[in-house]
Amino acid sequence: MAELLVVRSKIKDAARGMNVAGDFADALSKRVEELVKEASRRAKENNRKTVQARDL
Fold first, then answer.
1. Structure confidence by residue, pLDDT tens digits, 3-40
2. What is the Cα–Cα distance from 18 to 12, expressed in whole angstroms?
């Protein structure tokens, strides 16, 4: 299993009263990783080594 980029307990806190399926954290972590990779690509295209909020 890949390393999680999200904290399961924080997901449950954010879901506020909803049940959270066991596979949700894995799926969310995968999506976060995709977002970070895409933001990194944008930063590189703009000749920066720092990923910024605007890269999202």
1. 999 999 999 999 999 999 999 999 999 999 999 999 99
2. 8
Residue 4 near residue 29 (C-beta atoms within 8 A): yes
**Pair 32, 6: CB distance under 8 Å:** yes
Nearest CA to 12 out of 22, 1, 2 is that of: 22
In terms of pTM, does the model score above 0.90? no
- Is pLDDT at 1 greater than 60 in this prediction? no
Nearest to 38 by CA among 22, 47, 51: 51
Domain residue extents for the chain: 8-55
